[in-house]
Amino acid sequence: MPPFSTVRPANSIRALLLASTAVLFASPMPGHATDVDEDIVVDGVAQPYPDDLNIGASAEGSLTIINGGSVSNANGFIGRNPGSTGVVTVTGTGSSWTNSMNLLVGAFGGNGTLTVSDSGSVSSGFVFIGLDSGSTGVATVTGTGSSWTNSSNLFVGVSGNGTLTVSDGGSVSNDNGLIGSVGSGVTGVVTVTGTGSSWANSGLLAVGNGGNGTLTVADGGSVSNTSGSISRNSGSTGVVTVTGAGSSWTSSGDLQVGRDGNGTLTATDKGVVEAGSFSVAVNAGSTGTINIGAASGEDAQAAGALQGADGAVAVIEFGAGDGTIVLNHTETDYEFDATVSGDGLFKQEAGNTHLTGDWSGFTGTGEISGGMLSIDTDFRGSLSVLSGGTLAGEGSIDGDADFDAGSTLLVDLDADDILDVSGTVTIDEDAHVAFAGSRTLDFELGISTTIMTAGEIDGEFDSVIEDLLFLDIALAYTPTTIDLTPERNGLAFSDVTDTRTQAAIADAVESLDWGNPLYDEFLFMNNRDQVIEGTIWLSGEAHASIQTSAIQSAGMVRDIITWRLRSSLAVDNADVVSMDSMTGNLAQLAYAGDEGTPAGVDGTTTGSIGTASGHAVWSKAYGAMGKTLGSGESHTTERSTGGLLTGVEIGYGSDWRLGGFLGYSHTQTNVGELESKSGMDSFTAGLYAARRYEALRLMYGAAVSVNEIGTERNVRFSSIDETLTADYRSATVQAFGEVGYALTNQNGFLIEPFAGAALVYQYTSGFTETGGASALTGAWASRMLPVTTLGLRSTFDLGRLYGGTGVSLASSVAWNHTFGDITPATTMTFGSTNTSFTVPGNAAARDVGLVGVGLNFAVTPDMPITIDYTGAFAPDQEDHALSAGVNARF
Predict the structure, then answer these.
(1) Of 32, 404, 699, 846, which one is least surrounded by beta carbons within 10 A?
(2) 838 - beta bridge partners?
(3) Domain count, the chain
(4) 275 to 201, 206, 628, 874: CA distances (angstroms)
(5) Do 529 and 550 share a structural domain?
(6) Are residues 525 and 559 located together in one domain of the fold?
(7) pLDDT digits (tens, 9 = 90+) for 302-329
(8) Is residue 861 part of a domain?
(9) Alpha-carbon 170 to chain mean position
(10) Do 715 and 812 fall within a single domain?
(11) Pairing state between β 339-342 and 361-362
């Protein structure tokens, strides 16, 4: 049996320990113990010892148990006598060491080391690590499945120095645990670290029982016990740190922080300490400190937490000693919700803390020297706000409150945000009031709001630190109250903007007046960057930019029709393959000649239209994507389009071709920087005609497109976060024409200079967004844009080289110029207000260079197929298009 199995006061423990060890652990009679002063390896076999086993009895000895080997004995000693050194390693699954009685690691002046790893196991009764003065014991249990199971108590640092490390999933269990057991010069250190690592005490755990004890629980480790004590007896020092997410120390009963000695408990970096109750500085002469984050005066750290049994609110009671709670953390919104009673000191040093919970039994004092403490409960005690400290909240202080020079009272303009002090409020010079600038308000401009009541107010705050652009804050005092009055100053919202559009939007917001969420948001802005950001998000720029997308969609239709007309005018019953250089979006996909060679390749120009007496049905599918960079007040716009045009044409007389067409396309426009997107479904109908005079070609057309538009945009600035949508229509009407002349047509090669012109009219209906206070109402808009194109195209019949393959190659280059006001604009208001503002959108480039290439495949003489690429390029614009089509002649 172990010498004792209950924890007693330090003097009793020491006396009993000395008596017990003198009888039980003296040098045995010959034949009663096995001394090992050499290296022994037990590899995969069982090795029993009938009596005690001394590893390092008088010199150096080691025992290694591996590969499922096992050793058993009565008492076990590692480093038994002065000057001896013993080392035991138990490693590997199934490897074990069984001590039917007790195990001493470092005894009677010897040095001992025990390592249990890789699922090895050790079992024993009573355990001493560092038993006597001059002895040192070190024990390590590491790795998942590694265990040390003890049927009695475990003492770390009894009269010598002891260290226990449990890591990486290892486990230790015992009855009572003592760290730093006996003697003021004794040091015991225990570290439990790593997910799954555990130390389970079925009874008491004392850290610093009579000596110096340190316990660290880190990185997911856990320690448990019934009752706990940090610095249990006079003259002892105990330090416990619980740090890291998942790390925990659980005491099902009371946890004493400084019973008769000096105890410190620190919960940091999401570490959790749970106890049925916390007793701080229990007896007179003791010192107990609980730190959240870091100790007083040290660099602030992330906060840990205290909680009661099973996650309940922690209950903390200050005793007759010197007890302190320190909050020195880095959190921006930390709630300290414990129930606190007794006479102690509460210190706020760093971080933002909300004090809740029940403080009705607290009779001590509070200090704020850094960070912010919000009193959101009934704080029973006096409070001092020191230089660098900030007090806030809407609770009460049942005592006096002092504001030292350099301290701050933080307030919101909320009718419920009143701090009530039952005693005297003393305000030193150079103390300040700071305004939090809450957007959830319950006040009126020009109307006073009480921010503090007191039994008596002595002194005044030096100034109000409000850091607001558009509000001035004034304070007024009575003998028992402090009132705050917000007033609008003379700075207009638009005075701090950069551009005309930003100013117009800011003026529109200011016209909304008090009570509107947008107005209130701007009212409490404290720098010009916030104002500018707000106007940009509110602009609704995407509604203007969608007009450019509609113009470009109409240009694609125009390109297809002009190329359809060129192919219809193929001379001498020949087909022409060429690229559309009008806008750089598409190439021609339909042909109406009767032969597989380019127009006029035989050198003749008869003046007749090769297909004037025939008819054709054609269809063309196309897709395009492009980007226009932001410039001025607009932002980068990305767009993509896909569509289909289908037409029918007939020959009229010997010189004319007449046709009609229908089409559909979908265009997606995104302004990524403003989280805005729009979808446009376009339905198109039109007519066209063409006539040729020998090598001269004349083409005419007209089209109408009706566009169904749906928009969605986010508005995200300050506290505004809204998603707005709208549905409306626009229409595009255009008339266009082109003239071209074939200069050469020899050896299967044709060069044709051409010139085109178009007149485009665009109309966009009004709209009203839904989704929040930022919703806009837009007015209708219209504009007229003349467009010209000059270019050169070429066509080459590859059949001349490869024996009539029916394949032709086309290319083109051109210059596209747009006249008039190319920048789209939309005039809008917020809701039903009369103050409007006009926002420019992203404009297409005025001058664009166009290039294109394409192939024509004559599947049959009456059914050619085309595939084309076109690119449009400008300094701030880039578009790419692919198209494919088929033509059937009959």
Answers:
(1) 32
(2) 827
(3) 3
(4) 14, 14, 64, 71
(5) no
(6) no
(7) 999 999 999 999 999 999 999 999 999 9
(8) yes
(9) 35
(10) yes
(11) parallel
